Amino acid sequence: MSTPSSTPSSANFSDTQVQLSATLRALAARLPESLTVRELMEACGEQGLLLFCCILTFPFLLPVSVPGVSTVFGALIVLIGLGVMFNRVPWLPRRFMDRRLSRVSLAPALEKGADVFMKVDRLSKPRLLALTHGASTNRFNGFMLFVAGVLLMAPFGLVPFSNTLPALAALFFAIGILQRDGYSILAGHAMTLGTMGYFGALIYGAIQGGRGLASLIGG
Predict the structure, then answer these.
(1) How far apart are CA 41 and CA 50, in angstroms?
(2) Residue 211: how many CB atoms within 10 A of its CB?
(3) Relative to the CA of 139, which of 37, 103, 129, 179 has its CA 20 to 30 Å away?
(4) What residues does 10 pair with on adjacent strands?
(5) Could you read off the pLDDT of 13-72 as tens digits, one per residue?
(6) 3-state helix, strand, coil in the chain (%, to 5)
(7) Which of 164, 159, 163, 13 is nearest to 88 (CA)?
(8) Structure pTM?
């Protein structure tokens, strides 16, 4: 593989019905002796970025998450969403992107990942293609992934489910784009709307609580 430049390159995002497990196995079979994370993501294209996005959501699938982590991981999801929107490999931290991986260590990990995503492949498949097919639809889904990342960054700290809901939205969008699964995209929209409603209720409650406290102090 060629040495990556500092300018983001095309990710060659396009409609595909190739299962992620098949992509991982094919990549494992043609790995060079070593490559960087940037080269690995470019080799996988859209699927590599979105697989990384799925992994970023895993720490938030419990009701309460560790404070501070959501800001960093949410920012990475935002960048991946922008990458899907603009059909480009987005900027990611150089230290991460330039890390070299060896075939000896990477090939077994890709094979193991393929085994895991075989289960996802069984549950998720191309359907409701009007929600997943076409360049404009891809851009919109990328925008919604971007929104989910922004919501994940919201500073609600240890409020229960404040990270879980947007993380689920990002996970569903990533799987939906990967698998061309319209049902997963719909679930992502539902989680996004649920997150907005939940955050709106938290903000409204905080405002009402502040007014009540102000009236007690003033009275």
Answers:
(1) 9
(2) 10
(3) 37
(4) 88
(5) 544 556 667 777 887 787 788 888 777 767 766 677 888 888 788 778 776 665 667 888
(6) 70, 5, 25
(7) 13
(8) 0.75
